[in-house]
Design brief:
This protein has 148 residues and is mainly alpha-helical. It has 2 domains: 3-87, Hypothetical Protein Yqey, Chain: A, domain1 (Orthogonal Bundle); 96-146, Arc Repressor Mutant, subunit A (Orthogonal Bundle). It contains 7 helices and no strands. α1 packs antiparallel against α2 (20-40), α2 crosses α4 and α3 packs antiparallel against α4. The radius of gyration is 18 Å and the shape is globular.
Length: 148
Amino acid sequence: MDLQNQLMEDLKASMKAGDKIRTSVIRMLRTDLKNAQIAKGEDLDEGEVLDLLSRYARKRKEAAEEYRKGDREDLAAKEEAEMAVVQGYLPAALGEEELAALVDEVVDSLGVSGMKHMGAVMKEVLARAAGRAEGGAVSTLVKARLSR
């Protein structure tokens, strides 16, 4: 079952169970997916769906951090609960060693060295990671590898 159909089934289940947070998050995700599909003019592939979900989770994480800075623990907890729902649909994140190995593999396969090739390496690593790695972590590892 593809992710969009899974979201629809989970929406029905959460509505029946009376889970307001889960229902709200899934509705928002489905709306974002529909808007992206309209903007593109055709159906989204799984990679695009995962990208949208990871962006949504990242926004929730950043919002929770900002609420904490403003001493709004109640709102931070709500954002984290929403983030947890979204993360249930994302593939497991790569560990640091797996990510480092992927960066080494990409750098070797592209045969590049030096910081001028960072953009090409970042693009390839993020494409191969397919939503299982954050850009900041990838950037740090790529910088370390290319500056050797």
